[in-house]
Specification:
Blueprint: E1 2-6, H1 17-20, E2 27-28, E3 31-32, H2 33-43, E4 48-53, H3 57-67, E5 71-76, H4 83-89, E6 99-102, E7 106-109, H5 112-116, E8 121-127, E9 135-139, E10 145-150, E11 159-167, H6 170-182, H7 193-202, E12 207-211, E13 214-217, H8 221-233, E14 244-246, E15 250-252, E16 257-259, E17 261-263, E18 267-269, E19 274-276, E20 279-281, E21 283-285, E22 290-292, E23 295-297, E24 300-301, E25 306-308, E26 315-316, E27 321-323
Parallel strand pairs: 1-4, 1-6, 4-5, 8-12, 14-17, 15-18, 16-19, 17-20, 18-21, 19-22, 20-23, 21-24, 22-25, 24-26, 25-27
Antiparallel strand pairs: 2-3, 6-11, 7-13, 8-11, 9-10
Bound molecules: uridine 5'-triphosphate (UTP).
Uridine 5'-triphosphate (UTP) binds at residues 6-13, 23, 52, 77, 80-83, 85-86, 103-105, 219.
């Protein structure tokens, strides 16, 4: 089994944080998004991966090489032409073994083993209220997939494709992606993975669906904070500090220094952070930031940023300085 993780996108919705770091390296509950994904696949016994890099790809590569001892091929995607294109550029790393495709900005809480034990290709789905923003599937009576459609304008199904795919036939996927690219088949101007999967279906590949309840998007500030809350909920209280009142759940890095402050609930305080005379809840304070005399709620503070003063909600990029 090989995991394919596309992380080439620019992450515009998470600016200013993605001006300084690629989205997958943003901290959530104490480690980068990509760290959560890699830990999950390793825990399921997957030790081979292809990471499709683009925007700030060198930082991604350095992070993985220094932290992980698994076999990873890094493949560059020169322009973000869509998810189908990102998987197509990875095609030379496909072998005969099945593929598990995981979007680089989503954390899943699923039993990957159950998914990958399927005899057929299977696609992670979840019922959503507004399916227009997603690819969706229509099912046959026997539960297999009848059709896959990317971002339908009219309502045809509310079973959204969540970004987790188990592909049993990598050769056919490669063939169908190449057909998209060669014939310039785009939907909303991008080469879509959904369109390649629909081609596979037409050529006889059987697809089933796999229900995914635990699907945590990290693509926007509010969803990153929601994912932080979800992950922290499963953390034990590992930190006590006589200089602080800790209201769990929280993540406080061992190298963080807290003085006369209230931390939590739902605060991530990363390595090297200094917090003094402050209250921090439902927020992520990234590496080496300093927060003094502040009340922060629903905030994301970038690496090495300095915040001094009284605020409620801040979205502050790396190395910024806010003084009140
Ligand atoms: P998104 O479209 O959500 O990510 O793609 P983005 O483009 O980085 O974010 P915004 O929209 O600008 O805020 C989902 C995943 O697919 C990857 C992205 O890196 C992300 O992990 N992707 C998407 C690629 O690798 N290449 C592409 O051409 C498109």
């Amino acid at each position: 089994m090989r995991a394919i993780i596309p992380v080439a996108g620019v992450g515009t919705r998470l600016r200013p944080h993605t001006y300084a770091l690629p989205k997958v390296l943003l901290n959530v509950a104490g480690k980068p998004i990509l760290g959560h994904i890699l830990d999950a696949i390793i825990a399921q016994g997957i030790h081979k991966a292809t990471i499709v890099t683009g925007y700030m790809g060198k930082l991604v590569e350095d992070y993985v090489k220094t932290r992980y001892d698994i076999e990873v091929d890094f493949v560059p995607q020169k322009s973000s032409l869509g998810l189908g294109h990102a998987i197509w550029v990875a095609k030379e790393t496909f072998g005969d073994e099945p593929l598990l495709i995981i979007l680089g900005d989503t954390i899943f809480d699923v039993n990957l083993k159950l998914m990958t034990e399927s005899n057929s290709s299977t696609i992670g789905v979840k019922q959503v209220e507004d399916p227009r923003r997603f690819g969706v599937v229509i099912k046959n009576e026997d539960g297999t997939i009848k059709e896959l459609i990317e971002k339908p304008e009219q309502f045809i199904s509310d079973l959204a494709i969540v970004g987790l795919y188990f592909i049993n036939n990598p050769h056919l996927l490669k063939e169908c992606l190449t057909e998209l690219i060669d014939n310039n088949i785009r939907t909303r101007d991008e080469y879509q993975l959904t369109d390649a999967l629909q081609l596979m279906l037409k050529k006889g590949e059987k697809f089933t669906t796999f229900p995914v309840e635990g699907w945590y998007d990290c693509g926007k500030p509010e969803t990153l904070l929601a994912t932080n809350r979800y992950l922290l909920d499963s953390f034990p209280l590992v930190h006590s500090d006589e200089n602080a009142v800790i209201i769990p759940p929280v993540y406080i890095a061992p190298t963080a220094v807290i003085k006369s402050s209230v931390i939590g609930p739902y605060a991530t305080v990363a390595d090297g952070v200094v917090v003094q005379d402050s209250v921090i809840r439902n927020s992520i304070i990234s590496d080496d930031a300093t927060v003094t005399s502040s009340l922060l709620e629903d905030s994301i503070i970038g690496n090495e940023a300095i915040v001094r003063g009284h605020f409620d909600k801040l979205n502050v990029g790396n190395s910024s300085e806010i003084d009140y």
